[in-house]
């Protein structure tokens, strides 16, 4: 009798083990097939010049001509002049910003002007870092973000408190931070690396009536990722009457606010900053954002303001969710074809465990002050 029981439970254990392995296989196998779901049209144009920094010429007739052309840029036309890129980062993650800048300049021949924003205490740190590195030749400006602009307007209910960092909201204030900029701009989160020519992203078309280009989180995603937070209902409280008045479909696809292309003249004209502040402030008094499972922070007001007015970004130009798991969810070959990688989520490429952090390491430039150090084993 005892012997029989032993055999039975051994069988049960065997069945459980088999089920576990099947589950694990599905989990790891599926994501490697993401390329099948995505658009690989521009595969062959991926190039990287890891050893050449572009030479920038800021003076003379050519530069003047570029400046003239720049005055006539609008969202409908492709660039012939300067590409404007904005990156924001708080003092703790400046290493992310530096690696991202380096990845952009090493993969383009075009003139990029960087508009960098960090907390007021970190402006000098960032400046010293850039000046003591091969990036000293880039065209850039650094602004300290006045935290008073958002103080009293941020409220995080539970969840990830780091999402309440004031710098997360700097993206709401682009025209106020850069009042002289009236043209197109690309915004990129500091946990990204660019492997393609940034000009392609800058030339993303913003269709008539749309306010910006973003990547939506439903289309072209594989099953495992798409069952994660990806509809408006996960980010907003549809019981709130102000939310209801916006006539938003709760099942509308959400989008990632970490990478976008927009036109600052239009942003100003449409009072986007004012609208974002309105929702932000309202959320301190009433529940607007729901349970914030999906991330909360700076995302929900953007979803309210940009609803139904976004153009798409090429899927290879925003390969994301790298920070959602510590394990590898993309194959090496897929990653090598991606134009932009985004480690959104908990596992940052400068942390102890992150997938494909070797790609990020290629672009990181060490901090002369020694304050920022990626955590690496051994
Ligand atoms: C701006 O560019 C458009 C399209 O290239 C052209 O039609 C227009 O004349 C230009 N405007 C100015 C002021 O140069
Ligand atoms: C802009 O450039 C993209 C590729 O970078 C191209 O597909 C598109 O047709 C161009 N648009 C115009 C208006 O030239
Ligand atoms: C911008 O929008 C906010 C919120 O809706 C509003 O209070 C403010 O008056 C608007 N500003 C302008 C200049 O229209």
UniProtKB/TrEMBL annotation:
<comment type="similarity">
    <text>Belongs to the glycosyltransferase 8 family.</text>
</comment>
<dbReference type="InterPro" id="IPR050748">
    <property type="entry name" value="Glycosyltrans_8_dom-fam"/>
</dbReference>
<dbReference type="GO" id="GO:0005794">
    <property type="term" value="C:Golgi apparatus"/>
</dbReference>
<keyword id="KW-0472">Membrane</keyword>
<dbReference type="GO" id="GO:0016757">
    <property type="term" value="F:glycosyltransferase activity"/>
</dbReference>
<dbReference type="Pfam" id="PF01501">
    <property type="entry name" value="Glyco_transf_8"/>
</dbReference>
<dbReference type="GO" id="GO:0046872">
    <property type="term" value="F:metal ion binding"/>
</dbReference>
<dbReference type="InterPro" id="IPR029044">
    <property type="entry name" value="Nucleotide-diphossugar_trans"/>
</dbReference>
<keyword id="KW-0328">Glycosyltransferase</keyword>
<keyword id="KW-0812">Transmembrane</keyword>
<keyword id="KW-1133">Transmembrane helix</keyword>
<feature type="transmembrane region" description="Helical">
    <location>
        <begin position="12"/>
        <end position="30"/>
    </location>
</feature>
<protein>
    <recommendedName>
        <fullName>Glycosyltransferase 8 domain-containing protein 1</fullName>
    </recommendedName>
</protein>
<keyword id="KW-0808">Transferase</keyword>
<keyword id="KW-0479">Metal-binding</keyword>
<dbReference type="InterPro" id="IPR002495">
    <property type="entry name" value="Glyco_trans_8"/>
</dbReference>
């Amino acid at each position: 009798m005892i012997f029989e029981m032993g055999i039975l439970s051994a069988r049960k254990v065997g069945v459980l083990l088999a089920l576990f392995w099947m589950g694990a296989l599905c989990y790891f196998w599926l994501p490697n097939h993401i390329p099948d779901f995505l658009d690989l049209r521009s595969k062959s144009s991926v190039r990287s010049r890891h050893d050449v920094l572009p030479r920038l010429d800021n003076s003379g007739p050519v530069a003047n001509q570029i400046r003239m052309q720049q005055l006539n840029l609008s969202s409908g036309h492709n660039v012939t002049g300067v590409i404007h890129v904005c990156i924001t980062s708080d003092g703790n993650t400046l290493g992310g910003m530096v690696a991202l800048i380096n990845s952009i300049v090493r993969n383009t021949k075009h003139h990029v002007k960087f508009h960098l924003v960090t907390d007021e205490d970190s402006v000098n740190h960032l400046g010293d870092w850039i000046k003591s590195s091969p990036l000293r030749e880039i065209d850039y400006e650094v602004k300290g973000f006045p935290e008073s602009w958002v103080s009293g307007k941020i409220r995080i209910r539970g969840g990830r408190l780091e999402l309440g960092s004031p710098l997360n909201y700097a993206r709401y204030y682009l025209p106020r931070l850069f009042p002289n900029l009236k043209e197109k701009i690309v915004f990129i989160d500091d946990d990204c690396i660019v492997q393609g020519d940034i000009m392609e992203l800058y030339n993303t078309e913003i269709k008539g009536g749309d306010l910006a280009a973003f990547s939506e989180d439903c289309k072209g995603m594989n099953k495992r990722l798409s069952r994660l937070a990806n509809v408006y209902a996960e980010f907003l409280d549809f019981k709130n009457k102000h939310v209801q008045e916006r006539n938003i479909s709760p099942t509308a696809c959400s989008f990632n606010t970490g990478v976008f292309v927009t036109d600052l003249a239009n942003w100003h004209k449409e009072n986007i900053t004012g609208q974002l502040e309105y929702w932000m402030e309202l959320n301190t008094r009433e529940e607007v954002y729901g349970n914030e499972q999906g991330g909360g922070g700076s995302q929900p007001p953007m979803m309210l303001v940009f609803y139904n007015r976004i153009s798409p970004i090429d899927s290879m130009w925003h390969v994301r969710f790298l920070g959602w798991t510590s394990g590898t969810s993309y194959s090496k070959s897929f990653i090598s074809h991606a134009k932009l990688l985004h480690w959104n989520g908990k596992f940052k490429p400068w942390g102890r465990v992150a997938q494909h952090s070797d790609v990020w390491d290629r672009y990181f430039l060490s901090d002369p002050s020694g304050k920022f150090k990626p955590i690496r084993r051994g």
